[in-house]
Specification:
Blueprint: H1 2-29, E1 37-41, H2 48-64, E2 68-72, H3 79-86, E3 94-98, H4 101-108, E4 118-134, H5 142-151, E5 156-160, H6 166-178, E6 182-186, H7 190-198, E7 204-208, H8 213-217, E8 221-226, E9 251-259, H9 264-278, H10 281-290, E10 293-297, H11 299-319
Parallel strand pairs: 1-2, 1-3, 5-6, 5-7
Antiparallel strand pairs: 3-9, 4-7, 4-8, 4-9, 4-10
Helix pairs in contact: 2-9, 2-10, 4-11
């Protein structure tokens, strides 16, 4: 009986090895791409990440020669979409859009999601974080805001896009860097937080320039300062926090990855298609309309960036006492 079990075990290992080997050969021999793609966006339709995906998809289709269907899978702070992508077949036809949430989630909840379980394809650019106020606000400059916040600790109401969200982390980082104390007011997404700011229900909102760009253009909201390393061309009058001696450079990135194990030749095809699409005049205009800055990183560069981001977000979340995994 023991001998039979041993033989069965050996047979199982051999079969598994053969299936993996010939499965890989099948991937290698199959023309790529030969079918449509699914681009998973882990947030609701109409948000900043979704708008970037839908602006890029038709350009990507031309460069891949196949349909690219954007699939919204909101929920769980992005974890539902990330999990779906992680469990998909690593054949190159499932792509997931990344944001800093991929680095934040593992420290905010119990989840299997972790950036090392994906193969990075490309990083496309970013939108800077900012402190925004309604036009009628008494805070006309970032100095007005900082002076008041320092003189009134625990009184400034700062809206964000939800507890544990990237917008919440943005507010926490500004609070940390400027040595302030805010009242954090979470909302279910960017739009409700902007509405609250416009209605005077909160003093300001910590948000991404790209997400509120139409309201900024329409002079409904005013950007006091940005967290980018340099001034943003869309709001050139707004200083960076760095200029003020405040070390806060949190940005929200737009990037893409695939399930772990995608063949290298297919990865090269995908990256080249993304690079060409991101460099296109059509996407440059779209990025301008969204207030985003294009900065392309290849798979290796983006992989190294993810390592740095994991360290940054872990330290910030733990420093704020919000780590739910300890």
């Amino acid at each position: 009986m023991k001998k039979d079990k041993k033989i069965l075990g050996v047979v199982f290992v051999v079969v598994l090895w053969l299936s993996m080997m010939f499965g890989g050969l099948a991937f290698a021999q199959e023309k790529f791409p030969s079918q449509g793609f699914t681009l998973i966006v882990s947030w609701t339709a109409g948000g900043g990440q979704d708008m970037v995906a839908r602006g890029l998809a038709p350009i990507l289709e031309k460069n891949l020669g196949q349909n690219v269907a954007v699939k919204n899978t909101p929920g769980g702070g992005g974890s539902i979409g990330f999990m779906e992508a992680m469990r998909a077949k690593p054949d190159g036809y499932t792509i997931v859009q990344f944001s800093p949430s991929i680095s934040i989630l593992p420290y905010m909840m119990k989840t299997d999601v972790f950036y090392t379980k994906y193969d990075p394809i490309a990083y496309g650019g970013y939108s800077p974080g900012s402190i925004m106020v309604r036009t009628e606000s008494p805070f006309k400059t970032i100095k007005d805001f900082l002076d008041y916040a320092k003189a009134n600790p625990g009184k400034v109401r700062v809206g964000n896009t939800g507890f544990g969200s990237i917008g919440h982390m943005l507010a926490i980082d500004i609070e940390r860097a400027a040595k302030l104390k805010f009242i954090h007011v979470p909302y279910k997404g960017g739009a409700p937080s902007f509405t609250a700011a416009l209605g005077g229900h909160i003093d300001c909102v910590a948000a991404w320039v790209g997400d509120a760009y139409p309201l900024v253009q329409g002079k409904k909201l005013r950007v006091l300062a940005v967290t980018a390393p340099v001034r943003n061309k869309f709001v050139p009058d707004a200083p960076t926090f760095k200029e003020l001696g405040i070390n806060s450079e949190v940005i929200t990135g737009y990037a893409w990855a695939a399930p772990k194990g995608i063949p290298k030749d297919r990865m090269n095809i995908l990256y080249n298609a993304f690079k060409k699409s991101l460099e296109s005049a059509g996407f440059a205009k779209y990025a301008d309309d969204q207030g985003a800055t294009i900065t392309i990183k290849n798979p290796e560069e983006y992989g190294k960036f993810l390592v740095d981001q994991d360290k940054f977000w872990k330290e910030l979340i733990q420093g704020a006492g919000l780590d739910k995994t300890q």
